[in-house]
Design brief:
The protein has about 325 residues and is α/β, with parallel strands linked by helices. Helices cover about 20% and strands about 25% of the residues. The chain has two domains: about 170 residues, Dihydrofolate Reductase, subunit A (3-Layer(aba) Sandwich); about 100 residues, HIT family, subunit A (2-Layer Sandwich). Helix 2 links the parallel strand 3 and strand 4.
Length: about 325
């Protein structure tokens, strides 16, 4: 299925630019002041189709367009519009049809952003939040907090080269959330989860397998569940198994009938195999803001504390924070 990601730079108030004359292209108030954002844009759109509304495309300096290493798509009402090195479309549907298995990067301007936000296939917004207030008249629609979650923010301090503070923010449409990097404990895992969200493939579903194929060995399975030895066990555990449903379930409400008895059967088998006399079972389910899950696909955890360790095994619930970090 085709997916779209919006990439946009705004100020604190979601201002994206100034376009006093609607028949001409607009300008960006922080033009030339944030090379770090230019590099970010390049890295995030690399090898992906990029789509611009015609006036936005024409506001790119001629020596930089079409953007290299990316298919340049221009969204316009003009039936006969044709620019060498670019593809013309007259609707977002047309663009999605052209790239059914790719991530379409939606690059503005204001009108295209508004159309894209109405499309459920557009489920990620990469916002560069320029930390200031500027003058202009073109805005990005402030994202509705009931529908969108800010799952990551990467702050960059102004320096000799970059005149503004900024943050690279990742918003995901709630219904499309597969992972929650806010619950990850290392920067490497955060980066891995962001990549997974961009791939739109659940890492616990059979066609995803990003987390389970390489690092985590499948130690038992039946028709409903599979169990792995996690590569990120809780501290002080002798065994930490994660038992994952083979279909994409996100909350306990979806776990019914045979799922329960088959879960129990799998767990008992593991206990026998490892001669376990007891342990602790917990499940992360539902809203990841509450459950502390990094993957929004139901998983049971079974922890057998290491009896030789001089401290208790320890799991956290709710959103992970560094110890002593204020909420
Ligand atoms: Zn990993
Ligand atoms: Zn899944």
């Amino acid at each position: 299925m085709a997916h779209g990601t919006i990439i946009v730079a705004t100020d604190r108030n979601w201002l994206i630019g100034d376009r006093p004359d609607p028949t001409l292209s607009g300008t960006t108030p922080w033009q030339g002041q944030l090379p770090v954002d230019m590099r970010y844009f390049k890295a995030q759109t690399k090898n992906r189709p990029v789509i611009f509304a015609r006036p936005t495309y024409e506001s790119i300096s001629e020596k930089h367009r079409p953007l290299i290493g990316r298919t340049n798509v221009i969204w316009t009402r003009q039936e006969t519009y044709d620019v060498e090195g670019t593809t013309t479309v007259h609707s977002l549907d047309e663009a999605f049809d052209l790239f059914p298995n790719q991530e379409l990067m939606i690059c503005g301007g204001g009108h295209l952003y508004r159309v894209a936000l109405e499309d459920p296939r557009v489920d990620i917004v990469l916002r560069t939040r320029v930390d200031g207030e500027f003058n202009g008249n073109v805005y990005f629609p402030a994202l509705d907090e009931d529908e969108w979650r800010l799952i990551h923010s990467d702050f960059r301090q102004a320096d000799g080269e970059n005149l503004q503070n900024c943050a690279f923010e990742t918003y995901v449409r709630k219904s499309a959330m597969l992972v929650d990097p806010r619950n990850a404990r290392t920067p490497e895992y955060v980066a891995e989860l962001l990549k997974i969200q961009r791939s739109r493939k659940c890492p616990f579903c059979p066609d995803g397998k990003t987390l389970t194929a390489g690092e985590d060995e499948i130690i038992a399975q039946n028709n409903f569940w599979y169990a792995i030895r996690t590569h990120t066990p809780v501290k002080g555990a002798e065994h930490h198994w994660v038992i994952i449903s083979k279909t994409h379930l996100t909350s306990l409400q979806e776990v019914a009938g045979a799922y329960w008895s088959e879960m129990e059967r799998l767990l008992r088998g593991l206990q026998r195999m490892h001669e376990v006399t007891g342990g602790a079972l917990f499940v992360r389910e539902g809203d990841t803001e509450v459950s502390g899950a990094t993957v929004r696909h139901i998983h049971f955890n079974y922890v057998v504390p290491d009896s030789k360790a001089n401290q208790a095994a320890c799991a956290w619930f709710g959103q992970y924070r560094e110890p002593n970090q204020s909420p």
